Amino acid sequence: MGAPREQFGSRLGFILAAAGSAVGIGNMVGFPVAATKNGGGAFLLIYALFVFLICLPVMIAEMSVGRHSRKDPLGAYNQLSGGETHWKVAGWLSIITPFMIAVFYLVITVWLFGYLFQSVIGNLSVLADPATFGDFINAPSLFLYMVAVVAIVYLILQGGVKEGIEKGAKLMMPALFVMLIALVIFVLTLDNAMAGVEYYLVPDFSKIDASVVSAALSQAFFSLSLGMGIMITYGSYIDNMADVPNSAKLVALTDTAVAFIAGLLILPAIFSFNPATNAADLSDSSVGMIFSFLPKIFLALQVTIGYLGASIVASLFFLLVFFAAITSLVSIFEVPVAALMDEKQYSRKKALGVLGLLLVVMSVLASMSFGIASFFTEFVSYAGQTKSLFDIIVDVFYDTILPLNGLLICIFVIYRWKKANFNAELDKGAPHYKGSWFERYVDFSVGTFIPVILLLIFINTVALKFF
Length: 467
Ligand code: PFF
Description:
Na/ntran_symport; binds 4-fluoro-L-phenylalanine
């Protein structure tokens, strides 16, 4: 036997680390953009229902599989299925998916770091120039930023679960909350801020159709870091006596609250900049919003709060999103690292070295797909479109495999590992859960309609994306 398995030092540490994973670029920008485009308060309502009725049970399932097996996802599926080959496939998917998502998430985090750096040195007019983003993502300096970001992630993970992941989350998450609230208070004092709040929150149920409902669920699923093996892996580091259902509820609540509050930051800022904003003016993607739209607003702030003030606001914003991205990146990268440590008995250092190198190579290729190398830009074509390497990773892993992984964990927990074992694991640290209506709801939903819904999303995405 090697050293005993690493563990989080406290319940708070675990909750902050898991919330750190969940709170990411998806909350800070993805959610406000999606909500505003898709019916405001109406979208919010549907989203919240999905978080608690569909995603929370899946999160509980993932955490319990991790805690019971005390293994990475591959080892967990293997152990709890008695080594059945087809469940090995599910295990492999749960470690390949996070690695591939880490590739595209790293690319975006590197851009964020670059924009943070430029804001800190006061280069807002450059950032606001429409040509900047295109030049920036192709510039060789990007490689330096990538080295810096990878070094930060490496240093945190090198510290291990308690001294690295947990400490990092305990530092960055409170800082993130403070920056978020400070920025919200600031933007709410700007002219026309309330028009933005109204635009964000007034429900428009006429916008809700099948595609909006499906987008809300995908957003919620991604935002809670499900289907990526993360909650299995983090679950494997929690104490046997920890209360999994309540911890999961807190993580879901924090994640949703941050997404909601981020809307109170972004929308008032946009409306104070242009009170006549309408849906067509808003950027469709998070990337467009962060890197093209918002810098213009930061520059415009110079008129009201001066050069220094605007640079401080922009720096705080990019630091906020950067912290959110780093805690997510740490969690997703821990999954393949844990797998190499558990399955191949690699030391943490060696696992990090091997995977870090691979991650950098893949991410450089993915960033090159934005123009430097046409080979990667026109990698392949399907559904009548030419796709870059970056697009393929997003289409295959983010859009398609995530719901599939969610579906597999549901089926696995109820029908292979079995409901009685699942419940016994959860009851250990949560006597209030045993026999409760919530337990009955989780068992029922995970065994019935949740996998059906995830299957429908999976089939729909495959049909839309690839044919
Ligand atoms: N919950 C994260 C977010 O909303 O951005 C999802 C995530 C993505 C976690 C990528 C980790 C990651 F590397």
